[in-house]
Amino acid sequence: MNDSKNEVWITGVGVISCFGEGIAPHWETLGAETAPEPVIDAERFAPYAVHPLPEMDWTRQMPRKDMRQMETWQRLGTYAAGLALEDAGMKEDEELVSTMDLVVCAGGGERDISVDESILAEARGRNDREMLLNEKLPYDLRPTLFLAQLSNLMAGNISIVHKVTGSSRTYMGEESSGITALQNAAARIAAGQSTHLLVGGAYNAERVDLLLSCDLGHYLAKDGVKPVAERQKDGGGTVLGSAGAFLVLESAEHAKKRGAKPYARLAGIESGLGSRDNQETRERLDGIMERLGVSPSSTTAVLSGATGCADVTDLEFEALRRRLGMDVAIRSYTTMIGNPIEANFPFGVALGAAALKNKSFYPSFEEAEKPVKVPPTTVVVSTVGHYLGEGMAVLEQIA
Amino acid sequence: MSENYTDHMGRPIVVVTGMGVVTSLGKGKKENWEKLTAGESGIRRISRFPVDGLATTIAGTVDIIEEGEESAPTISYAMANATAGEALEEAGFGTDGFPGPLFFAAPPVELEWQHRFALLDEMPGKEPNYDTLLEAARSSDHSRMHHLVQLGTIAFKIAEKYKTQGLPISLSTACASGATAIQQGMEAIRRGETGAALCVASDGSVTAEGLIRFSLLSALTTNNEDPSKASRPFSKDRDGFVMSEGSAALVLESLEHAINRGAKILGVVQGVGEKADSFHRTRSSPDGKPVITAIKQALEDAGLETGDIDYINAHGTSTPENDRMEYNSLKNVFGEAIHEVPISSNKSMIGHTLTAGGAVEAVFSFLTMSEGLIPPTINYETPDPDIPLDVVPNVARKAEVSTVLSNSFGFGGQNAVLVFARDPA
To answer: Has B175 been annotated as catalytic?
Structure first.
């Protein structure tokens, strides 16, 4: 056993959101002196709004034949993974990728909406609906669609396209899957169970089937989009965003040996699960920060993946201020890119890494957000899932 | 009493102190083991939904829901609840809570047709499309349906019920998931993060659409006539796997943790190997290299040589390709000696429990060692001359088994191999 733990460094970042692709352009846009207007499509799925994908040329990160085997969700992840590998200087380095571990946080893939709707249409006039499924599904479903739906097939596609073939694990569980994926990945590197690892996820918000599975619980914001904190006055709700975020994590030793430049140190991740009762949630969030050992400081800032959902968003902000001081700079990046569910937490860590590397921070994304006085050297990333699970990471600047 | 708590690489030794299992053969270890070693099949004609017009009409279903909704998430939860309860009781953990995290191999659940139809019926007269389903969602509260189809829910509920520590990990590595759950628990204990881990795998996804999806990939057997004869691993006339349901749970602990609380040790998780394959979405590399690497890694991790393995619990799905590939890979690692090692496929009797497979087969592997009895490969009537293995044909065999190698492979290039031992070294 390794008694002394390895430092975990972030050495590659790949992101896609409504603002485009690549971490450098994201920093330029979101890290500018004044915040940009978020890109929002409020028409296509009204009364719901989404942060849509930018125009993508998928072939820049995958061969056409592989692209055709995937739907948007898997393409997004495979593309973002390619960007992260490129950024880390590992892309197509066979020796590095063939020994690289892969951890993906994933939901499920796209359904064939037209097949579903044709079945719904016929179901109206029939009492033997189970027979209807037997009549339609074997003929109407595309045989390979299943592979575009299976949760672990985003990882499978990343292995096929980018030849990342150490170990491969897929975590599920909405926002919490991003937390457990990063927490487990960092623990493996710290303990020497992995030397270099690709971790992240992606979410395609522009799907009626996913909007449905979210709004069955009335979690989505409706009729007009305001920034996350401001939205609370109108009853809150989450606005989904299409996005992908992958990170290359390495032990400091591994990174130094190959001369890789780090973005930041991933100093700790803590998580929790329990009832969303106000008092219990407060105690859990306090406990997470206690275990992380974060304290008020002018050089500590927060990136919050706040979903915007009522009550829990306020509880999260209150907990952060209770621990880090009333003046702490909190930036809800979900105001800008939406909530990309599984990719929520990895995206926050990606943005934190970019800020620490550039020795600066993001401007206020809405009026309620306090300015930073000096550039932070510590960034706390916080994600509280829309219905269960929460976690935080501490990122530190590497001098 | 002085104990050696670490393995050949100085890591904490990981032991099993509780197990639970549910398959189409029955509920609990006792019933499963009796039937498994009697060579009984749990495969039957599907009665859960009509099978008219379907290419495959058989499955290893588990009818565990007595009242209320029967869907993949409710069946998977009910089975997981049963096996986690059985394992924790055996390990001697009461209702006060479990001192470690939960690693849960979960089926990828989603909204099912019964839910879509129910939403549609709430909106008579409206267009039959997703906009209408969304309108139904907005019109009244469907929180229960929401929770049901979130991919983390089953693990959240198991974690809540058995009071495991922290945020549970829900994972999927397709048909290797059960093995991955055990691997994750083992790794966490080896890191010194925890003294105990609860590893559960469950899959209850025999729905019409689930069955049709596998059918469309030509993965399922169409030997519908006699369901009990359909799963024929390593036979010449094998033609696909049988889709099945099941769950298993294992309580893992560091040897030190188990001894300190006086727990009975049921076996050792001694090694693990894992290697991803970049060849194809559903097929393994023709040269078998990733599987070969995973097997070698598992042996090395366990500190064992091929000659130390007494029995192999095969992935043995009964598809033409898997069984051939598995044999070729094993032969590459073991050489000619592979023909002398008994190897059997539990799937000949219980079918392929998908997400749960690796964990179900781990429980059966530990029972094989403790009972000194190797479950057979049934339906072995026409041997495949290209796979000249000792498959323990048709009848269980008494044998001293102190080590087992267990294979699990899944779509998406997932390969996980576990090595188990009866006694701490």
So the answer is: yes
